[in-house]
Design brief:
By secondary structure, this protein is mostly helical. Helices cover 72% and strands 0% of the residues.
Amino acid sequence: MRKAGGGPEFSGRPANVLTAYFSNVVLFDKNAVAELLEVREALETYAVRFAARDRSDTDLERLITIQVQMAEHIFDDKAAFIDEDVEFHRLLVQMSGNTMLTFLVQGLRDATKESIARGLEARRSRTELESINQAHHAILEAIRDRNEVAAVNAMHSALPGRHREPVDHSVAL
């Protein structure tokens, strides 16, 4: 169901179970962050094409505001940047109009924050940090232009492909 204002309504189904699972698994499973990025890529590349097609001017303005704030905070306020980054991606998924997808992404929120924090720790140079801004700006431009293909490609660039070592399925369990 959609509630007034376009946000999802889940009839009391809290995302707490998903949130608790994903928040804990990224702390204790060494492959969990990589797997989380793969899950996000699947969910968000699906969502971003509908966001590009169906976005409202109001949603676009909100996305622009968030992206500007992200660019302002990436070098000097990591906590604010992380919150804004999570909100940027949450809004993209909400813009898709798929409430179940939004519910799933809300369940990943805390784990996503942790994975973004780890990603920022791994990127220390200004050039590396600026590449994060450029990736988000490319997503924003594609959404603005209602270009579904460019939006999907930009999301793939922001959350690139395979994040963990291939699994050898030939090994007997």
